[in-house]
Amino acid sequence: MIELLSMVAGVVTTIILPKALEKVGEKVGETAWDKSGEAVQTVRETVQAKLQAAGTDGLLTRAEVNPTEANTQVLQAEIITHMQQDQDFATKLQELVQQIQSQSPTVQVILDELRVRGKVEIGNVKQANEGQNNAQQTFGKNLQIGGDFKAGDVTQENRSSK
Predict the structure, then answer these.
(1) Distances in whole angstroms, Cα of residue 118 to Cα of each of 81, 115, 145, 149, 150
(2) What is the mean pLDDT of residues 152-158?
């Protein structure tokens, strides 16, 4: 049970801290992220209300302003403690995390930030997604070519389950 609480608290901490959202935002899957944005805001408000009631809301503020590993771990420990003491709080966070995870896009990127100075030849590339309706597939994002670049056939498949 503590393992599950730790996992949920880790996800909660990750999604409410702005640095984590910056990494995944970048216009990739923007529509899907917009859908889960409301749930992310609900998670933040739920955690903030719980911490305020306990007089420890400064932990969230500190982790948001300075999201170091130490600050994040302290916040996670506090969230776990509240989840252990309040089953309704734990259940609500678990449901919100599941909602966010089901709405968040799968992001597949091949050749991100590639810098070519000489000669590069890449064979055939197949990028496949199975079962995720809101997958975002990208090939060759932020390429800087200063030489010869040759790619074989590139195939992207998005086979969602219905």
Answers:
(1) 55, 9, 9, 8, 11
(2) 81
